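User: Could you go from structure to sequence for me? I need the amino acid at each position, not a summary. Structure tokens:
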């Protein structure tokens, strides 16, 4: 028997396992987006691992406050989960045969959130943040030993589910491109919130993906 040829020899072992897991018809029979999260978590954490001040933030909220008023959050606000109003998209409950899903079925990550009064925004699937920090006195080590003085979003990642696994050749490529384009449209809106909130920011890196595929791998908004 001829030795098996690895179709993606450059991928780390965990990434190959995570890819196989998401493609599995046994463990992902409905071809949902969520099963691709392990692969992207692993990839992004590996990407940021060598830079001490870069962190990966899954389901990162970006928001703006359109109408400013004189109300300020006091010491007792902001810690109660009941103050966060989240509108989740509805997952499809009917389970048609694979390939019959409408675009976006199973994608509920583009949710609205209101983390502050009179705020509106979205959740990004993943973000990479650059943090600035100064060391804290020893009596405040319970907070991790650092005081965060700045946090800047460097990269946004929007993920859509992979296309039907029965597709091949040109039809496969066309569908992948359509899903990636849907992710890019969401990223434009997400980046818009960041630009409105941070007037000094004029561009941001982004990845729009469908399953394991992103076209191009990284681009600027």
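Assistant: Here is the amino acid at each position, in order:
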């Amino acid at each position: 028997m001829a030795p098996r040829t690895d179709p993606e020899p450059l991928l780390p072992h965990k990434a190959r396992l995570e890819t196989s897991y998401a493609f599995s018809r046994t463990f992902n029979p409905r071809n949902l987006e969520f099963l691709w999260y392990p692969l992207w978590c692993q990839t992004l954490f590996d990407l940021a691992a060598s830079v001490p001040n870069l962190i990966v933030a899954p389901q990162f909220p970006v928001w703006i406050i359109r109408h400013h008023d004189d109300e300020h959050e006091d010491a007792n606000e902001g810690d109660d989960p009941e103050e966060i109003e989240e509108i989740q998209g509805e997952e499809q409950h009917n389970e048609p045969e694979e390939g019959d899903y409408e675009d976006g079925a199973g994608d509920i990550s583009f949710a609205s959130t209101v983390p502050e009064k009179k705020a509106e925004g979205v959740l990004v699937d993943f973000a990479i943040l650059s943090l600035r920090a100064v060391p804290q006195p020893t009596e405040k080590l319970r907070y991790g030993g650092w005081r965060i003085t700045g946090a800047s979003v460097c990269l946004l990642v929007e993920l859509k589910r992979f296309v039907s696994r029965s597709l091949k050749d040109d039809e496969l490529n066309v569908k992948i491109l359509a899903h990636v384009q849907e992710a890019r449209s969401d990223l434009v809106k997400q980046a818009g919130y960041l630009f409105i909130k941070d007037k000094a920011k004029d561009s941001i890196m982004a990845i729009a993906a469908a399953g394991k595929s992103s076209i191009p791998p990284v681009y600027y908004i």
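One structural detail worth keeping in mind: Strands lie at 54-65, 85-87, 112-114, 119-135, 146-160, 205-210, 213-214, 219-220.
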